[in-house]
Amino acid sequence: MHPARELAELLGGAEELTIVCHNNPDPDCLASAFALGRIAMAAGIDEHHILYSGEISHQQNRAFVNLLDIDLTPFEPAAVRDRPEGSLLAFVDHAVPGANNRVPEGTPVDVVIDHHPNEAIEAGFVDHREHVGATATILTEYVRELDTEMDADLGTALMFALRRETLGFLRGATPAEYDAAGWLHGHADGALLRTLSTPSVTGATVDAIAEAITNRTVRGSVLISGIGRTSERDALPQAADYLATLEGVETAIVFGVVDDGIQLSARSTDSRIHIGDVLDGAFGDVGSAGGHREMAGGEVPLGVFADFTTDDAQLFAIVDQVMSARLVAELNLSTEADTREPVKDEPN
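Structure tokens predicted for Bifunctional oligoribonuclease/PAP phosphatase NrnA:
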């Protein structure tokens, strides 16, 4: 049986669906949850909820939720723990309770749809495809297979998710993404896609990216940068995307203190490096980290760092030293940096 039909059959026997996004959800996760909710409604489920934890702080993500009117609810443990009989629990774009989500470890999951590397998935229905570039690709296939009613909001959400997850089809895109995009083209709102692609940027985001540029350290083709404390979590992947384009840089890793944790974001075009494995190897014993060959992220609790000092400058000096040392060791880099200079204006 086609996975879409198997899923529809499972949903048809349920009365309620709770869809849990991963922490700080991105467009791929949000669009996939949006599409799964539509599929559930078509299967006869009158009530479904989309839950998220963390923040929706990236300016594109905020615009995505607001302009497409996606109904989200902040995660509360009771929403999962106290679900009524006949309710199903679904994960999209992540797979394991307690890993990049606030669902307690060991919680039974009914549906998992994901494309990230993972070997510990347990659920009643699992569609796990590491070979595709986005979870939205899988959900687009479902929508097509099941003849789910489409409108401009759903078409735009899935199309934008495909574009954002693959950086405009330049990173990790497969024929499946192009096929999905070709079908979605007739359902998406072009003007809305352009608006989502060029949202306004906060001053705090610009400051964080500037800090990453100033603090960069380059060893060979690897760039590492710490930006101190920031309220703009999503400035980290934006900084990593930008720094990865610098001449001679094949791998860029950016980290910073956000609330009570250290967030990391990494990008790599070096065929010798699986950046998800690198972050997992460097920080898997003290936090959660991992991802794809070319794109990865992670989080390390401040823990003893926060207990050592309340001064942000002193705190980040320690964080910077420890995080950089772990990355240097994992990547087997020289301890001598090639450069650590701010970007300077070209002479007139």
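The chain is about 40% helix and 20% strand.
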